[in-house]
Amino acid sequence: MTIYLDYNATSPLRPEARAAMLEAYDLGGNASSIHAYGRKARMIVENARMVLAQTFLCEPEELIFTSGGTEGNTSIWHAMPRGYSPFCSATAHDSTRRSAPSSVILLPVLANGLLDCAAMAALFESHQSPPFVSIEWVNSETGIIQPIAEIQKIVHAYKGLLHLDGVQALGKIEIKPWGDYLTFSAHKIGGPQGVGALVVRDGRPFAPLLKGGGQEKGRRSGTENVAGIAGFAAAATAITLPTPVWRDDFEKVLQQLPGLKIIGHDVPRVPQTSCFVRVGFQANTLLIKLDLAGFAVSSGSACSSGKVGVSPVLTAMGLPLEEKQSVLRISFGWNTQQSDLNFLGLALTSGSIYGIQ
Questions:
Q1: Which letter, b or e, does each residue of 209-242 get, where b requires 16 or more Cβ atoms within 10 Å of its Cβ?
Q2: What whole-number distance in Å separates Cα of residue 87 and Cα of residue 116?
Q3: How far is the C-alpha of 278 from the C-alpha of 259, rounded, in Å?
Q4: Which pTM value belongs to this model?
Q5: Any idea which residues carry the catalytic annotation?
Q6: Residues 31, 62, 137, 92, Cα dihedral to 10°
Q7: What are the tens digits of pLDDT across the range 115-147?
């Protein structure tokens, strides 16, 4: 049996979400149709919109359903109005950095992974046009939480607009009414893969990335994923915010190992992510050994299939190459038992995984 500890990549489907999806699948119908089946499908979509709007602290009409975080992050850059200068945190998700305009300016982070707010303000000061800024609220690899209240205050002081990639924040920390734009994804909280949400605050400029049938009030065309949307809402209602006790206990066990370094240990992190380095041991090799031993963990963001390599996030934080090549990340969630972490801690400290004592 494999112990799954890679929730930041994707969470197992919650039973509440599965049940809601099966009910929607049994109903059938296109939410844009005007007959009875269509009206029932539309009711599922709109009820889910109400539930998720409460979760995201937005108005229902500000919420647009998407296929997930990547589409939402890409849509934001497409929506950037003329006359703004694009900025993006250096530790942002690949979908944000790679879809940004070629003129985007990467905002530096400090060695602890937090955005350098003084440097950000200086960069804004050097541009005449207002900033259009995209920030990953919680980093998917390290679990580090950015100081969004301070960041937003600076961005708005320069009459800018702020996008928050909230994919890794949802279900792990309290969602606050921050950001002009926000993106979320269902499968990170135990909902289905392939469905997400984009929040566009009232009055903020927006141009649709996908055009066609005019669904989502013309802001995102394409037939609504009724079952996926139902599963998203059901998963959101089942959220219980975690505490850091299990993570901290696990990391105390790891501290027995020589050359062990916890990434982000001295700054705010989400409670269910631990990113650590043991210098001298290649992450690629350890991932294979752990997999064979029955543990599913990762070396960072799973944003492309089979990707194992040096992380641009850790590069931006200034980690030396030998540390970047030795990083492992464990992330857990709704279906994890404390014993799962205990077993992994035992495996990592016994020497069986490393081939040494």
A1: bbeeeebbeebbebebbbbbbbbbbbbbebbeeb
A2: 13
A3: 5
A4: 0.94
A5: 303
A6: 70
A7: 999 999 999 999 999 999 999 999 999 999 999
